[in-house]
Fold:
Amino acid sequence: MGKDGFGSAKLPSSDLEANVRYLKENIFAKDDTMQFRRLRNHSGPGFAFCLVYADGMVNNKLMADDVVRPLIQYRFPDRVDDLMELLETNVVFPNGAERTAEMEKIVQAAVYGDTVLLADGCPEALVLETKGFKVRSIEEPMTERVLRGPREGFNESLLMNLTLLRRKLRTPDLKMQYMTFGRRTRTKACVCYLDSVVDRHALDELKKRLKKVDIDGTLDTEYLADLVRDHPWSGVDTVGTTERPDVVAGKLLEGRVALLLDGTPQVLTVPYLFLESFQSDEDYYLNFWFASIGRLLRILSFLISITFPGIYVALVAFHPEVLPLPLLISISQARLGVPFPTVLEMLFMLVVFEMLRESGARMPGMMGQTLSIVGALVIGQAAVEAKIVSAPIIIVVSLTAITGMMNPKIKGFTILVRFVILLMVSMLGLYGFLFGVIGLLAYLYSVESFGTPFLTNTRADRPQEWKDTTIRAPWQVMLRRPVGLSRNRVRQKQGGEKK
Amino acid sequence: MKRFFRPALAVALAAAMALTLTGCWDYREVEGLQFVAGIAIDKGTSKRYLVTLELVDLTGGTQGSSTLPGKLVAADGDTISDAVANVATNMQGDLYFNDCKLAVFSREIAKDGLTAVLDWLNRDPQPRFTMQLYISLERTAADVLKPESEDSPAVAPYISSAMEQANSMGRNTQVCLYEADDILWGEGMDLSLPCLKREKLPDGQSGGQSGGQSGGQSNSQPGGQAGGQASGQASGQSKTVISGTAVFRGDRLVGYRSEDQTRTDMLFTSSVHEGQFVVEAGSAAKRVSLTIRNSSSSILPAAGPRISISIDADCTLDEENTSANVLLSLGTDGVERLAQSTLCANAQKEIRAVQTELGCDIFGFGREISRKDPELWKKLKPRWGEIFRTLKVDVSARVHIDNSGYAYPKGKR
Structure:
């Protein structure tokens, strides 16, 4: 019997002392937080019990009132045929109670806030639901704030998260199936989908891949995301994550599958399409004109963010004849006295910016002011005045940075592509730039996410598909669900749902 | 490993081709470039040519000013290419001709034939076909590229933008390298190039305001401002202005057209925006100025041979430079008729002058014939030089005044 699991091991004996000794000395040895509470009831023939639970994980008041008190005070009949049956149905009060002899279940329950009731003479235990640990309250997620729209966010409790989701989708069509991951962490997860609209292929594929997962711990959904996504070595994410129940509900309604994991507010959704990176839940809560402009801006920003440093270097260092003379002269003047080539300057400043960004994300909050002063003054102004970098580079890097931060969902990919394009440009100029962009497009078109092409709905010749992609059309025209996800495509009118 | 081999090979081959066959290895830093703003070509003393380049001086100029002074560098050589290379050898960084605005030729060079000197400009990849061409009326071509004072801005960009203005105002015709090539290599038209000369700045007067008479330099160009600053320092300062055109037969300079003649020529040879012309209503004291907003002229050949030119101009009545109310007394029709006859008479006169004095077909009548009646052109072509001198030219004009600037007739409410 390994520490990773108990297989089909059972309680060793029907003798209370033997069982308690087994748990105390074999299973929970050197674990001082495990409590073994012995109880005795002298009515009837007289009974001995032992409650096994983890200190601090249980609701103490509930334990005292609904478990300990009835066990001590209950007047047992003189003759008891099935003690466990009697305890479950007549004695203890908690909502959840399950008889089991499996060590796996017993141990899992004891370490996760439930109470295991052992009784003398019984080869089984009664698992009582007495969880009482504290979880974070429901707050608006820091990373996905909206000006307008629901402000609930998931927290670290799987059950709480499922209730948040259930409240958005009050239909028996919403299916929730538990799974467990992590040989040691034994983390619970839940696959959620709407049975009649779900993309069957994606659902089966997800389940198939999840079954193969064999890892000792899953502390966040990213552990699973890495293990189940298509193109695991790719820099581009083919699974989506969100902390917002409204986003998950919206995606389920489009035929996607969600995976919730205990212990993290991050929920995975698959299939994930490239254009989702530019979508915000707020798009659906604002006027569609405004939302569409926002989306187009985000796409434009992404393009600027990946290409701008490359284009600058290509134009300045390879094809200055493309630039108008006044601009060329002012760039040339700014570069007078700068000792490094343009490419090196650009690389240097981009790396400095990434460092600023990373330290901004890592450092304690109260040091933020120092960082901004150092960043703006020292790196920007002083570096230009000291002729270490030229002023246009600062402008290019700033614009790149601003546009890059507009799409946090593909932040990492943006940085990656930006550097690759810059390197290609530094060797081949605009020619290298075109190579880079063609390569990027070819790659993105080759990527799939759970059976759906990553760049679905980006074809220019099908304006019907743009309705909820680069723009957000008003709801009265979005009669159908997006292509490529659900086979059940009717969203509104004409009979509504098709079973 | 085997399945990676083919893609890896493909990538390697693509990269090898990209790196070796495309010639994209011209990484160069912009601060190393010497920006050539203008090129002047003269006859050399020891060698055949003297090439003077006006470079934009990046280190000069006052801090934060948007215009930079130019500096002149010169070298001689037996060919243009040789001379340019000689300039480059004594220089830090590469010469950068892509933004070279203009080329100026001295009269000696022009008299010897332009084709020889245009060849390098056409052949070298850097100079652009949109470069403007000029003839210097001064002793040398380099003279017109000299700055007014030490720290005044580069001359060539200033001339170039003044020319664009003059062109749209109907004062002079901009001729780019490709247009000159078209005329020189084509048939039925003779080349005419705008001329540059130095004009003395009146003492104590800003250079910017002195350009009123000199072909389209009426606006406040950077050159004018800097000239104004410098004019107080020394007397006898001069600046470069555009002045009339030089006329070629084949590729050789044969004569000139004055500023006023050039202006009239433009009315029936090209489309003019904003161009003005003055109509005398009865007497010289009653002048009416019309601004052409849109004009087109069509040249039609006919057997004989004869040419009929029809000018169609939409005008604004810009000014009645008299106390009389011309528009009210003559009516719009009357002013239009006057304008039409003035236009026709002027055009006839100037065409006559070109035919008799120069005998060069700068209006492109031959080209029009060759385009519209190739059969006729075939017959005329061998003797076109003679035929042009005696060619009958009819001019008709239609002037339409659609705006007088007043809601009511002058002086009425």
